[in-house]
Design a protein that fits this description.
binds coenzyme A; about 180 residues; 6 helices
């Protein structure tokens, strides 16, 4: 897989030496507030995850999100497409921007826009979907901006911070992505 370039963001394959930074992110309660990763993770846990990830199909490998920082690229998060169903042509998207100073700058929206281009233009999927906790307003807004529509709600499907929260399912169909591209 070659590097995927957008206007301000690029997505590259994750390397073993990225794991230390990933480990910092997945132990930051603000970053993981709305993630299914919520228990303390050691470097060994993270290295084991990396090893299992390297055995996945090439199209399901974690991608590192980078933005320009002067003359170099700076790593701010990771993302990917998972659980690709080759018959029904669908896949689930995920994103974590671990560098909190980079939140609310539109990088999440651009990353998801790039991932959608990757899903439909490269992987030839028909449906890209994701799950987001109802309380994760920033993520939901960002996904809407990237073209995702809310299609359903799993009521009280997750227990976090002492209470249940709904999980929202959002998706983009290939036909919608094509129509959105024509509008732009
Ligand atoms: C969720 C995440 C991917 C979003 O990326 P981002 O780059 O921060 O988001 P963007 O800047 O693209 O868009 C955020 C939007 O939400 C809005 N927003 C942020 N906080 C908000 C709030 N409390 N209420 C309403 N809108 C809010 C922003 O104003 C912006 O919308 P606008 O451009 O219309 O003003 C990123 O913040 C992240 O990875 N967070 C930690 C992990 C996580 O939650 N991952 C998602 C799991 S489903």
């Amino acid at each position: 897989m070659s590097v995927i370039y957008g206007e301000r963001v690029r997505l590259r394959a994750a390397e073993r030496n990225d794991v230390n930074r990933f480990c910092v992110w997945v132990n930051d309660p603000e970053v993981t507030r709305y993630l299914s990763l919520y228990l303390p993770m050691s470097t060994v846990d993270e290295e084991n995850w990396f090893d299992s990830m390297t055995k996945r199909d090439q199209s399901e490998k974690t991608l590192v999100v980078e933005v320009r920082d002067g003359d170099v690229w700076k790593m701010i998060g990771n993302c990917g497409v998972f659980g690709i169903d080759p018959v029904n042509r669908l896949g689930e998207l995920g994103i974590m921007l671990g560098e909190k100073d980079e939140w609310n700058k539109g990088y999440g929206t651009e990353t998801m826009t790039l991932l959608l281009r990757h899903c439909f233009g490269t992987l030839n999927l028909n449906r890209a979907f994701l799950q987001v906790y109802a309380e994760n307003i920033r993520a939901k807004r960002s996904y809407e901006k990237a073209g995702f529509v809310e299609e359903g709600c799993l009521r009280e499907a997750v227990y976090r911070h002492g209470k249940y929260d709904d999980v929202i399912i959002m998706s983009v169909l290939r036909s919608e992505w094509v129509a959105q591209k024509k509008e732009k």
